Every structure is written in structure tokens, then in C-alpha cells.
Amino acid sequence: MATTDSIFSVLDDEDHFLKCFGVFRKRLQEKDMTSEDWLANIVTDVRPKVVQSVDQSTKGTLKALGVGSGDGRTEDYFLSHIEGDFAQIHQSLVEPNRLLAEQHKKNTQQTNKKNVTYDWNVQTLEEYMEEMKGFKYHLISAIHSLYHMTNPEESLGFLYDQLEENGNLLIVLRSEKSVAGLIAPGIPSQYNKIIIESSRFVLDYFDARGIPYDLHVRDLTLDVSGCLDKVIPEEASLLLDFLTHVKDFCKAPLPPGIKDSVFSALRETVENSSKSQGVIYPYHCIVVQRRHGQ
Hints:
By secondary structure, this protein is α/β, with parallel strands linked by helices. It has 11 helices and 8 strands. It has a single domain, classed as Vaccinia Virus protein VP39 (Rossmann fold, 3-Layer(aba) Sandwich).
């Protein structure tokens, strides 16, 4: 019988995770709009709110927090479009993957934003929470990083509580209608370490508390060719590792029924797709602003 000692999450191997992530990015294709178009729409929505959140007591300094920032591609894009609104931006970054944190740091050194300062924290959100309770931010972003929170309700409450009045929280997660969102429920979290399977958990969390939010939807197409072949090629195997978050998924000694469930969900998604070799992979960006008294 399989034990967790012989089954690993992709998070247990930084190098392997980056390989899988690289394949996933390579196989994502835009639908109807480019990445910049999608982000520009969010900037247009959020920028006035962020400016409003910075009061005179900070002397024009924006305090921002990035949670699970990875290589910082999305956050850097956002900062580049709002940095002109502030005399100074201080960006705190929390990223447990050392290699991604180093890559992000190198990227920021190359762009040389003169009015942006950084502090780097190579740790999990839970570790950071223990150290930084009570410290407030005007902008908190969590871009594809909340899937693995060990106590998701406590962590979401923490992020909301760390907002200054009128501060903004940006959360990007896959939709439950994405292929990974459909696959995840069939894999116990002890194997892939995924606690939040999709944006549905976060939307339900804020709905239950009467906290309003704006929702931006981004549709992409994911090329899953090879993932259902009788003999699965190496690149497709790496993609399956990313989608399931189980290292060496095809070879891992998972309990009976799990792999069948994954391949069944993937096959059904492909059959229902209008794309010849791909499936629609929707993202949700949830924007929450903390109002007075909330």
C-alpha cells in the first residue's frame, strides 16, 4: 500500500517544480487578449483605489506586500504602472521557493526602479504571519500563491486585517472550471499539499462575510497534448506533475483510483473543449478593498 513517505509534492523539489512550471507557462496561450491587456484592465480598476488608500501621514509612501510572489512578473508589471503616483514604494515580498525569490531579486536589480525599495522573506505566509501581525499595507497581492495555505480561513482573515483603511487585496487563482481545478478534488491534499483547489473557496469566504469584491476573469488555452497518450512524453509528464502537484505523477505509487480519476477528468475536459489540442484554463482576479469600519 502506498505511503506518503514514497509520494512527493512538486513543492518538495524546487528544481523539479521550476521545470514543471516552465512547461505549464510554455503551453499556456492567450485567448482574445494578451497578458498585458488583462493586467491593464486590472490596473485601470485598482489604481485609483490604491492612490486613495495612501494618506498624507505616509508622505506619499505606498506600503505593499507580495505573497508567494514567485519571479514577480505580475507584481512588477503592476508596480511599473503605479510607481509614478507615489514618492516612494516599499515592497515586502514573501516567497518560500529560494530559486524563484533569487530570480525575482535579479529581475528587480535589472529594472532599477529608483523609488521602490524591497525586503525579501524566503518563508511561507504562515511563518511571516507570526512575525508581522499588526503591520499594515495599502496593497497586498497574492498571485497564484494561496493554494497551499495550511489554515486558509485564518490566512485570508490575516491578509484582510493587514490592509490599511481603503487598502486593496488582489488575489489571482485558477477557476474551479479550469482543468487543474477539476482534477484537484480527486487527489487528497496529503499528496499534493493543495488546500484551496480553486478561486471558489476565496469567493465563498468573502461572500459569507458580506465583504464586496470585484472579479476579473481571464480565459487562457492550455495545450494538454500528450497527457492522454498511451506512452506519455516527458514534457506532457511534467505538465501532469504541475496540474496534479504530485512529483512524477505517472510513476508515483498513489492509492488505487486516484490516477483513473485524474485521467477521467482530463479526458472529459478535452472532449468538452472546442480546441483541438487544448482546454480553456480560466483565471480569476479577486479585488477586495477594505472599507471604513470593516
